[in-house]
Amino acid sequence: MMSRLLDKKLADILESTSKVADTPKDGLNKRKEAAEKLRVSLVTLDVWTKAGIIAAHRIGGRVYYTDSDINNALKKVSKS
Fold it and tell me: What are the φ/ψ torsions at residue 59 (nearest 5 degrees)?
C-alpha cells in the first residue's frame, strides 16, 4: 500500500515537473521584477496585462513575465 502511494505521488511530481518544463525559459520575472524593468507600478502592469499590451504566464496562482514579453511591451508602448 505504501509503495502504491509513493508511486502515485512520484507520478504526480513528474507530471507537474513536465508542465513547468513547457513554460518559456528566457527568464521568468515576477510581477514586481517586471514592473521595475518597465518602470511602472504594479497597478499599471495589471492594466497593461488586461489590455493585452504585455503577455503574462500563469503558473499555479502566480503570474510571470518573460524577458521577451517585457521587451515586446516596451516596443508597443514606445510606438504609441
Answer: -125, 110
Is the pTM of the predicted complex or chain greater than 0.85? no
Alpha carbon distance 48, 44 (integer Å): 6
Dihedral sign of CA atoms 54, 46, 32, 30 in order: negative
State pLDDT tens for residues 2-37: 677 777 777 777 676 555 545 445 689 999 999 999
Residues 38/73, Cβ–Cβ less than 8 Å? yes
* DSSP conformation letters of the chain: -HHHHHHHHHHHHHHHHHHHHTS--S-EEEHHHHHHHHT--HHHHHHHHHHTSS--EEETTEEEEEHHHHHHHHHHHHH-
